[in-house]
Amino acid sequence: MKVLHLDSSSSWGGGQNQVRLLMRELAKAGVTQLCICPQDSALAKRLNGARLPVKGIAWRGGADPRALWSITRVMPEYDVVHCHDAHALQQVILPAKVYGKKIIAARRVPFTTSAFKWNLADRVIAVSDTVRQVLLKSGIDPWRVRVIHSGTDLAETRSVEPLRPSVRERLKLSNSSFVIANAALFVPVKQQLLIPRAAALLPDVHWCLAGDGPLRDEIVSSIAEHNVGDRVHLLGWLPDARSLIKEADAYVSASSEDGLGNSVTESLALRVPVLSADGGGGAEIMRPVHERTHSVLFEAGNPQSLAIAVRKLREPGMREKIITAQDDRFADFAIERTAQQTLELYQEVVARAR
To answer: DSSP letter at 207?
Structure first.
């Protein structure tokens, strides 16, 4: 089995980390691989650092002829082309059809898209059923779509170093202060504006937001409006947000529109209780936990509902009950499972071709 991975992004995000983790696991299974991505991109640097095969090329957008030329030159050597974003898929459709190569395309976001392009892939990986449903509404053939969850590396996540100094030391909080973390880009879809409203209902809880983005000024205004500046803390971008999550008493996912939620699965790995809006990928991850505990999902956009969930989490014995249920749920999001299911999909499409 020989697999060519394509990723068009120059920046680092959850999708690029999935490429890294997937390639590492597939290498353990003896799969021959190469990743083509933009030269000097964050992914190229990370793969080089991990000694995983990568080729950086001139690549900007979905219709760059330089990228098309570079990809086409190496394609005959591979059985499967795994496109990790829409621009990569756009680049590869024509040469893959010419050379008779199988296309696997990953979709990580729950936004409507063009059915024509995705229906030219042999299989489309949706990272959650939430994404799958949007793909079907967009007109992608149902038989083409396979749900394979993004994976999290348990050992790697737990080995992350804590913040130094700790967030409690930075903010001059006592060791007993109850801290809830959130880590995401400050954009409307992440719905962090809910947090100052919920904070106004919980005077003894501190909320630490790691990130930045276009919604920052609105969040700052909301903090002032609700007079919660003493307990809603904007930390900016951290080198690794998992260091904050590791220290928190809980993690909150306010978005009801995420495709899945890497910070949610990482919180599970870190054994930090997660409270999630009842919608999107976060709810999909946490619903089995909620069915066992009746405590971790709250109504999206409703500060009273979030406040109730926080109070319930702090009841005696509830934290341990949630963590036990989360430990069981995490098995569905282990990177080893993701890699195995992906490899089986590669084998399936190649076998059908033969």
So the answer is: E
Q: Is the CATH number of domain 155-333 3.40.50.2000?
A: yes
| Pick from 318, 131, 303: nearest CA to 225 | 303
Tell me which fold the domain 2-151+334-353 belongs to: Rossmann fold (3.40.50)
Tokens of 311: 């109070």
Place of tokens 């904007």: 234
Query: Using DSSP, how many helices (H) and how many strands (E) does the chain show?
Result: 16, 13
Centre a 10 Å sphere on the Cβ of residue 82 and count the other Cβ atoms it contains. 28
Q: b or e along 156-188 (b: 16 or more beta carbons within 10 Å of the residue's beta carbon)?
A: ebeebeebeebbbeebebeeeebbbbbbbebee
**Beta partners for 103?**
81
Pairing of strands 178-183, 145-147: unpaired
Query: Model-level pTM?
Result: 0.93
The helix/strand/coil state of 46 is helix
Confidence of residue 40 (pLDDT cuts 50, 70, 90): very high
All structural domains of the chain with their residue ranges: 2-151+334-353, 155-333
d(CA 325, CA 289): 5
pLDDT at 242: 96
> Which sign does the torsion angle of CA 326, 84, 158, 270 carry?
negative
Q: How far is it, in rounded angstroms, from Cα 23 to Cα 3?
A: 10
Mean pLDDT of 259-273: 96
Dihedral (CA of 240, 241, 242, 244) sign: positive
- Among 194, 183, 184, smallest CA distance to 304 is for 194
Residue 245 vs residues 142, 219, 238, 295, 303: alpha-carbon distances, Å? 37, 20, 11, 20, 21
